[in-house]
Amino acid sequence: MQTVRTLIVDDSPSIRATLAHIFKSDPEIEVVGMAPEPHTARAMIKDLNPDVITLDVEMPGMDGLSFLERIMRLRPMPVVMCSSLTAAGAEVTIEALRLGAVDCIAKPVGGPAELAASAALLCRTVKNAARSSARPRVTTTPPMASGESRNTRFHDMVIAIGASTGGVEALFHVLSSFPENCPPTLIVQHMPAAFTASFADRLDRSCPPKIVEAKHGQPIAPGTVYIAPGGTHHMTLQGGYNGRIRLIESDPIGGHRPSVDALFHSVAQSGAASVGAILTGMGADGAEGLLALRQAGATTFGQSRESCVVWGMPRAAAELGGVQQEISLSSMASTILSACRGEHRER
């Protein structure tokens, strides 16, 4: 059995020891080294060639985010941010995910039950990270450079997008290339409830459209992107282009809440006046919903395997027949907008 070779980077000796103990309890994980700060870690990465790095946010010499940015630029590899800051510091978490971290989890704390749950989550996250595909960050094309303008007409279309693992970075790329007058866009990104408001705010400060965390009863409008809040509700659309957002308190669907499938099924009522896209992510959420969109006459896209961090959700959707065309992340925004203008032709 091939193990996941893991390098622990943390300035706290006790945390390094705790993480090593947790990982060594899992026969599928091998701790190949531990580093107290980034400069030591850099040398160990070259010597040990680990499969996954767990990385603290705050360390002496160079903070974890700066080191993460350097890793993803010079030697892309799966990185899991593991820090006390990730539990409350949503802004730090979003920035780490934007820079290319596969996931962000809190350091193990609490009593025996909490520690056991944290240990299981840590091991599962590291093993999932090992199955991801790290790559250099994609350069974003400014929207005006791709021919968009405030005069562009999008024919009263609605866009629905679903994403999970790797989706934060992908959505920053896609939405950075959307113009200010983009069609109303509804997005489900699998994310804890504490992070979605900060995620929407961070996107809003970086991208041309207005980006907000969705609220129940909110009318959708051109030039606005709505991020589904994490937690206890599914986000759906009622009434199509002139409709309103509904946040429905319900059980998880396929283990997810909010669910991409719930969003896609509701947008399918708009038929050919909608475009659906499923981005990088683990699992199969959104596959059935994307098929419903396509069967209703919508144009549907799946992110290409080569550009995904995890080709799970797009693959499941493609195998079910929901994907009309696979598109690379670098071309996803322009392709979605072309479909909204009625210019897209399936190749």
TrEMBL record:
Residues annotated as the enzyme's active site: 164, 190, 285
Tell me the Gene3D superfamilies matching this sequence.
3.40.50.2300, Methylesterase CheB, C-terminal domain (3.40.50.180)
Keyword Hydrolase among record annotations:
yes
Q: What is its main location?
A: cytoplasm
The Gene Ontology biological process terms listed for this entry are: chemotaxis
- PANTHER family under this entry? PROTEIN-GLUTAMATE METHYLESTERASE/PROTEIN-GLUTAMINE GLUTAMINASE, PROTEIN-GLUTAMATE METHYLESTERASE_PROTEIN-GLUTAMINE GLUTAMINASE
- Family per similarity comment: Belongs to the CheB family.
Name the HAMAP family on file. Answer: CheB_chemtxs
> Which protein is depicted?
Protein-glutamate methylesterase/protein-glutamine glutaminase
Organism equals Stakelama pacifica
Which lineage do the record's taxonomy fields give for this organism? Answer: Bacteria, Pseudomonadati, Pseudomonadota, Alphaproteobacteria, Sphingomonadales
Gene encoding the protein = cheB
